[in-house]
Amino acid sequence: MTDLPPFPVTTVGSWPRPRSVLEAQRELRHGRVTIAQFERVADTAVRDVLRLQEEAGCDLVTDGELRRDNFYSFVARKLTGVKLMTLAEMLDVVEDKAGFERLLQTLDVPAYAISNPTCVGRLDRREPLALDDFLFVRAHTGRPIKVTLPGPYLLTRAMFVAGVTPEVYATKEDLAEDVVRLLREEVLALAAAGADFVQLDEPVLSELAFAPASTRTFMCAALAARRDPAEELELAVSLINRVVDGVDGTRTGVHVCRGNWSRDESTLLRGAYHPLAPYFERLEVAQLVLEYATERAGDLIAFRDKELGLGVVNPRTDRVETSAEIRRTIEDAMKLYPADKLFLNPDCGFGTFSMRPVNSDGVALAKLRAMADAARSLR
Ligand SMILES: [Zn+2]
Fold first, then answer.
1. How many CB atoms lie within 10 A of CB 379?
2. What is the pLDDT of residues 39-88, one digit of tens each?
3. Cα(159) to centroid(ligand 1), Å
4. If you measure from the C-alpha of residue 148 to the centroid of ligand 1, how many angstroms do you get, rounded to a whole number?
């Protein structure tokens, strides 16, 4: 692992896709360009986003997830046995169609922008999930690199769709076995190739903690019914720990947020981390990458023996937080965390869903610069 300066500045992963990539993604979906043609367009865009992060003062860069249509459904292209289903197609397999449709409208879910990776066959690796993308970034930057992957609980919840998946995997737990195996192989390969940081995205954990059992919320693709939240959280902890077990030489982290699909904060989940704390503390990862810039996340909590990826800017607002404000947030966090355990990041990605980013690249860049300014002033 490369040495990082104090208060390393990084992102949670995604960046608004430039027009060229959006067009190439559309052409790829329609089969009008080959994957190789698409990748050439994406290569240029990834090089650009690396330069932007370097110039803004990012200490740990990502590829902006530019090659992905969103942070988890891209696995459909990488794995066998996964079929992308639009939410409209999902409507055909959910029981309460009217309720589901109402839910999408109420929660401001971009139904047209999202496809769910549904498990319809045995899972296996067609190509690496992120290793090739990492190697490209490695060849085009000297900065330490963070790689993001959907977490095993999120992937299992998203991919297991009743009415389709049980013909292949009888239960969610059966499917989880193959998800864990594939993610673990990927993380080990990334560690061996020298990735500095591997972040597993598990936003669905907040759905377990903060969505009342009686209501369905939209949390990415957690459309599958869930059991008792405590049981589900136990399952999530065990799956994550099995993925990272024995991984050496790369920093591991888990990102959890309360939703990043809408700029209407009232549709997103709300609640402090207390109900999740006992589970977070048992995760065998170095870092928790958490949102704190939104007041929906409540007060800062000290998690034992963990680094904190501190959310210091809201990715969904036009207003750019000042470096003085960010500095105050960091100083508050230093009352609970030693300085060398604090990383700085936005609350979530700036472009989670390629067709509906939550911000423009201009504002995202200004927010990154403010974060880097605040870090410099404290170093
Ligand atoms: Zn997030």
1. 9
2. 999 999 999 999 999 999 999 999 999 999 888 989 999 999 999 887 77
3. 19
4. 11
Contacts with 159 (C-beta within 8 Å, 6 or more apart), sequence order: 82, 117, 118, 119, 123, 165, 175, 179
Give the C-alpha separation, 262 to 260, whole Å.
6
**Distance between CA atoms of 133 and 147, rounded to whole angstroms?**
9
Show the tokens assigned to 3: 């040495």
Which tokens in the block code for residue 182? 């594939």
- Min mean pLDDT across 235-239, 282-286, 354-358 is at 354-358
Candidates 345, 321, 293, 328; CA nearest to 13 is: 345
* 311, 291 Cβ separation under 8 angstroms: yes
For the chain, give the longest Cα–Cα distance: 57
Strand pairing of 79-86 and 115-125? antiparallel
For the chain, helix (H) and strand (E) counts, in that order, are 13, 8
pLDDT top residue among 322 and 87: 322
CB atoms within 10 A of CB 161: 22
* Separation between Cα atoms, residue 60 and residue 47, nearest integer Å: 15
Distance from the alpha carbon of residue 31 to the mean position of ligand 1, in angstroms: 30
Mean pLDDT over 142-150 rounds to: 98
Instruction: Assess contact for 354 and 28: CB atoms under 8 A.
Output: no
Distance 14 CA to ligand 1 centre (A): 10
CA of 367 to the centre of ligand 1 (A): 16
Sheet holding 197-201, edge to edge: 146-150, 197-201, 251-256, 287-290, 307-313, 342-346
> Do 62 and 148 contact (CB within 8 A), yes or no?
yes
Amino acid sitting at position 109: V
- Chain centroid to Cα 222, Å, comes to 14
What is the spatial distance between Cα 282 and Cα 4, in angstroms, rounded to a whole number? 26
Mean per-residue pLDDT for 230-252?
A: 96
pLDDT-based confidence at residue 354 (cuts at 50, 70, 90): confident
